[in-house]
Design brief:
The complex is a heterodimer of chains A (100) and B (477). Chain A has 100 residues and is mainly alpha-helical. Chain A contains three helices and two strands, in the order H-H-H-E-E. In chain A, 43% of the residues lie in helices and 4% in strands. In chain A, helix 1 crosses helix 2. The two termini of chain A are 35 Å apart. Chain B contains 15 helices and eleven strands. In chain B, strands 1-3-2-4-6-5-10-11-9-7-8 form an eleven-stranded mixed beta sheet, sandwiched between helices. In chain B, strand 2, helix 4 and strand 3 form a beta-alpha-beta unit. In chain B, helix 2 runs antiparallel to helix 3, helix 7 packs antiparallel against helix 15 and helix 9 crosses helix 11. The chains are: A mainly alpha (100), B alpha/beta (477). At the A-B interface, helix 1, helix 2 and helix 3 of A face helix 9, helix 10, helix 11, helix 12 and helix 13 of B.
Amino acid sequence: MSEKKDFIYEVEKTALLAKLNLTEEKKRQFAKEIEEVLNYFQDINDLNPGEVEDFNHYLILEKNQTREDEKNDFLLAGKEQIKKAFPQRDGEYLKVKAVL
Amino acid sequence: MIKELHQQLKKKKVSAEKLVRDFLDKIEKKDGEINAYLEVFKDSALKTAKKVDEKISQGKEIGMLEGIPCAIKDNLCIEGQKVSAGSKILENYVAPYSATVIEKLKNRGAVFLGRTNMDEFAMGSSTENSAFGPTKNPYDLKRVPGGSSGGSAACVSSGLAEWALGSDTGGSIRQPASFCGLVGLKPTYGRVSRYGLLAMASSYDQIGPLTKTIEDSAIVLEAISGKDLKDNTTIDKKENFFRNLKPELKGKKIGVVKEFFGEGLDEEVKEKLQAKLAWAKEQGAILEEIELPNLKYSMAVYYLMITAEVSSNLARFDGIRYGFSDSVLQESISHDLEEVYLNSRGQGLGNEVQRRIILGTYCLSAGYYDAYYKKAQKIRQLIKQDFQKAFKKVDVIFSPTTPTPAFLLGEKKADPLQMYLSDVYTVSANVAMIPAISLPCGTVEKDGKQLPIGMQLLGCWWEEQELLNIGMALENK
């Protein structure tokens, strides 16, 4: 995080990773603001926590939940609602733009 | 107050339908200027109320929340209703199922008046980040109600709902409660199921009540908490918060952290809080200064971790399966799938959400992951250990909720860092996953208006009852 110009480049690169189309103006604005925020949080650089023991506030550690592989009525009931929410559909199918 | 309304319903002094109609009238008259509601569920609210009236007329017992009108933050799913999280990207999205807290409240006959305005995806401290316009503070319409649960706070504060649900990731229940003169409770992480809550930062989010009194807070918490198989972070720990409620102060150890009363705290707010502490001491509370050496890193840990969690949680909003999509616009500029993602997210998400996604993605990207995210995770553990030590010495920790009373609309909107800093006293509870409550502590005058201020009590994990009982004693002054 040295020069402003470099950080605009970082924002540009990150925006592509995050799949966000940003205007040039927004890139400049975010670069300035995010750099300011990161600078403000620089104090964590002074701290070297080393190896830290995990602290868990749960009295009883919960086990993973597993379910029988059975037909789920909720999925059937919710199916129509979920299909209704598709931005584009073709009958039973969700329609999307070409990948390539 | 919930208990009073419950008694009136039981004694048939008022019908549930009349109660709902009174609230609907008030909303009609007042919400134009406050903008607390994004949508009012008139028909379904009246339908629920009529069912409650039927039950009462048949001489059946009704529960404490039955027939009581409440409001729901717009990031909680209610089956068949729109849920937008204050975002354009979900403007017309209809929830296909209900959140666990909503199911619990439905089973208890609670009446949902509507969904309330909020900062987009709960990111913000003023409700100015809503895609549907800001909510105003009922105490001074030129000021913000706080956020992100600003709509929920403003509607309870102005009598447009008896109580409301909010969600708190770094202070989003407590800060608006403080700005609007209410009680706001963030439960221990794991106390309330997050199933059906539109996730912001999954290891920080908790749902909780915004109410007029501690008693109401206890009633609602009891109703919404408990083990849920659909949220594996919840635990099985049934408690009767309402029945066990009793004001307690004598002999209670109240921890005070010097940093919480240092630079940045408004002088008048400080005076009010210190007067409250002095009063508590007179009543037999024992004040003890304590140290939390890593507290100063809370803000950094919070913003580095939540933005990372935000960036992955919000990856699902891509214009493909639901919500706003550039691909269906007449003026669509997308030619392939990749461009649909880029453009739908670029146009559908607001500034603050995009800023946090970029910051979070940056913190998680190769080369920065160790320096930011991983390090923040470690410091989070250190902060938890600090609190663990502190709660061996004291029962609760007392602090301000916010550095100042409600600020002006537009005052901090252009400066994200300043906006972030308004959460300085609230984020540590979410970092440490402990319960915390904000309750009214008088008012201070600004520009000729009396503005409420809040005090915050931080408690040990799962000790909500302690917070409520001590809070009740402080509330009764």
